[in-house]
UniProtKB/TrEMBL annotation:
It comes from the Bacteria. It comes from Rugamonas aquatica. This is NAD(P)H-binding protein. The lineage of its organism: Bacteria, Pseudomonadati, Pseudomonadota, Betaproteobacteria, Burkholderiales. GO terms for cellular component: cytoplasm. Gene3D superfamilies: NAD(P)-binding Rossmann-like Domain. Residues 9-123 form the NAD(P)-binding domain. GO terms for molecular function: aldehyde dehydrogenase (NAD+) activity. Signal peptide: none annotated. InterPro entries: NAD(P)-bd_dom, NAD(P)-bd_dom_sf, NAD(P)-dependent_oxidoreduct.
Length: 316
């Protein structure tokens, strides 16, 4: 029998990537949207249902008959995170409890503060130094508590996302300008400081492979991806320049001063500025546990991944 998944956030970067891959793998995929007729015009093979992730009845009803709930929904532009994010995870937990489905949550490095750096594993202490990090910790804590009741969860953490369909990312908001030919690169990091990247199609592939290995997963399962490690901040810049056919391009400094000035008025700038500490010191997530289960981590060569990303963003 075909398996069925419910994807919350299917119009977003990670939600859409996972949803399309599940369809390609033969899953029935349901997705919630406030305007399902408009969403269905994408022709992506999903069953679009009218509903809202903030409405528990909508989520519980949509999750009936599913084996997987992909919780990839976030408020757009970081708006009103505190009031929206936690209720949405509670709705997914209620839906998983009613349907018996496993919840898949894309994780981040925001959970961690500098005391856990530079190398993080799944058991590293979570003492965040930002508001958004504290919310992420709360999400995982609620999922872990629900696991004691038998609600199955899979959390996959990765570095900064980039990919052809990712607009809300450091790559698209900080390094390049989407929609116009590449003429300049800015870089938010300090000189010589390593940074971790994750190509979104690789993240989706990793998640789906783990889901396909259900018999190897604990009730509360957590994994981390290594992705693409840029040891000194030059590797990603060089890959962008080469993909654009302009190997002579060098990175300019990211305008942190502008973030400081605009933060009181622009929510996205405020959230980006809050994450600056992740660019001031190396942070590397270990994928040892992931490799033990999958044998190897899916990894598209960096040059290929960057070229596809820039093409998707309209920068080349």
């Amino acid at each position: 029998m075909k398996k069925t998944a419910l994807v919350l956030g299917a119009t977003g970067g990670i939600g859409g990537e996972v949803a399309r891959l599940l369809v390609a793998r033969g899953w029935n995929v349901k997705a919630l949207h406030r305007d399902p007729q408009r969403a269905a015009k994408s022709g992506d093979g999903m069953q679009w249902l009218a509903g809202d992730a903030m409405n528990r009845d909508d989520v519980v009803s949509a999750a009936q008959g599913t084996q997987l709930i992909v919780h990839a929904v976030n408020p757009p532009g970081y708006r009103n995170w505190g009031a929206l994010v936690v209720p949405m995870i509670d709705n997914s937990i209620a839906a998983a409890r009613a349907s018996g489905a496993r919840i898949l949550l894309p994780g981040t490095v925001y959970n961690y503060g500098p005391d856990a750096f530079p190398i993080i594993d799944e058991e590293s202490p979570q003492r965040p130094v930002t508001r958004k990090g504290a919310i992420r910790v709360e999400l995982e804590a609620r999922l872990q508590a629900a696991a004691a009741d038998g609600v199955r969860t899979l959390i996959v953490r990765a570095g900064d996302f980039f990919g052809p369909k990712v607009g809300n990312s450091w790559f698209a908001q900080g390094l390049v300008k989407p929609g116009k030919p590449l003429t300049a690169i800015s870089y938010p990091g300090s000189a010589g400081i390593g940074h971790q990247w994750a190509y979104l199609p690789d993240v989706a592939e990793t998640m789906v492979r783990l889901v396909e290995n259900e018999d190897k997963l604990e009730t509360f399962a957590r994994f981390q991806m290594e992705g693409h490690w840029d040891a000194d901040g030059t590797r990603m810049v060089a890959a962008i320049a080469n993909a654009a056919g302009k190997p002579e391009l060098k990175a300019g400094a990211f305008p942190w001063w502008l973030m400081a000035l605009a933060s009181p008025f622009v929510a996205v700038f405020r959230e980006l500025r809050e994450m600056r500490y992740l660019w001031q010191q190396p942070v590397l997530m270990s994928n040892k546990r992931l490799v033990q289960v999958l044998g190897a981590e899916p990894r598209t060569p960096l040059d290929v991944a960057v070229k596809r990303t820039l093409a998707g963003l309209g920068a080349i």
